Amino acid sequence: MEKILENAATLLASSENNIRQNIDHPGSAFSFYSDSINKIGDSIVAMARDSKSRFLVVISSCDDETIVEFTGDRIGTDEIAAKICPLNAANAKALRKVFPWTAPISLRDRKTTVGCGDRLGCATVGHIAAAKEFQVTPVLAQQSIRELALTGRTYRDVVDDTCFMVFQAGYKDGYGADGDHLKTIDDIDVALAADMLMITLDLSDIMNAAAGDWPRSEIDAAFDKLPEGTKQHIIDTYADKTFTVKSSKVNIDAATAKRCAVMYLGALDYAATVHEHLAERRGNKFDLEVSIDETTSPTLPSHHLFIAKELLLRNVEFTSLAPRFIGEFQKGIDYIGDKAEFDRQFRVHADIAQANGDYKVSIHSGSDKFMVYPTIGEMTDMRLHLKTAGTSWLEAVRVIAQHDPVLYRSMHKCSLDNFAAMQELYHITADINKIADVDSLKDEELPALMEQLEARQLLHITYGPILNDKVIRPLFFAAMHKFEKEYHQGIYKHFYKHLNLLGVPKR
Length: 507
What we know:
By secondary structure, the protein is α/β, with parallel strands linked by helices. The chain has helices spanning about 1-5, 10, 15-20, 90-100, 125-130, 145-150, 155-170, 185-195, 215-225, 230-240, 255-280, 300-315, 340-355, 375-380, 390-405, 405-425, 455-460, 465-470, 470-480, 485-500, and strands at about 30, 40, 45-50, 55-60, 75, 80-85, 110-115, 135-145, 175-180, 200, 240-245, 250, 285-290, 320, 360-365, 385-390.
């Protein structure tokens, strides 16, 4: 650092481009991320790394106030000083103040968005590298309460980690932050307090999903208990009606209208309450996604139409809606099901969205569903939200398998030990007996496991036990720091494939 201070006056007097070319010194213990170098007033703010960690560096003249915004160890003179600043909450807050483009924003006016789940807090640079090549806006900070519990992070951690990596990448085009699958207003408030402006409202606990299988007599009995005005509205609006939505027609008979009322009205009233709460807290600076995908049965087009119309009647401003599509959207692998039937039904879902407020169709568990991406992109005209999560974690596992086979074997065995417990949280159908004994494989054979469906799902759902293992955890994060470039390159390649197959236009 002393060598940089020797040249600091010259650097401060030069352009950002010149600073990028001259700030690193041969033999220095650390190096700068070139894209992060920003000159503001008489200060330089940049991200750097050494063999163990990443950190912020602020170099400033004594007359500039930027340096006082950040906390860290200060060295230098009264005329020129520098600070080495840890990547903590205080410095993330300072970074967002000095560089507002590092903070998440509402994406309600962005046509195509993709949720880039990052369970580790170190994948964002790879996500950005892919997103920059397409006409898409990334939701870079995205976590569910379940993921937070399994990784030991908080929403504040998720947003702050993303903030630093957005700065590291020099990405100024805007990004979203999604409090994923939230069910209560208390949890929503925790996410909002951490600047997560996208709220995915999971209605699975409030909607009466079981009524989807009730006999007609039970539906009639439940419907009869509703207020007279509500019953009359449902019959007059939906019963025995045919709705034309773009190129599709959706028929709702009287029995279906009553079933939808029994299944969804309570949940939709709750969605209206949540929307009112969000508007009170954020004005119009939020994105509400309504999720009805956490059920065992696919969302019928008639049910989707009912939900959309009732939300609009309640003046709920929702940016996206996530139905449960036909087929299997399992974690970490491609679509399972009849592609032709998926295409037929998805056309109706896309038409419903475009004819009822033109909200985005949201695809949950959307990572690696390469078979159906062309359909999704074409039929939505790219007005969509694709939600991914564990696929970025699997790219980290791939890096470990490629570069640290001893560590990978430990992770693999930890996964096997915890697979049964994690199956209670994640629905997959992998037969892990098809996976070879990891000790029987040569080191060079380990990366191929990330191409085997069963091994992908095994590692996908057991991230929590791996990351909480006291022996594995420090070794894992040390390896991820060491092989940072390789990880970002893997993420870039993987997400480029996602966006390209979706048909997202290039920039």
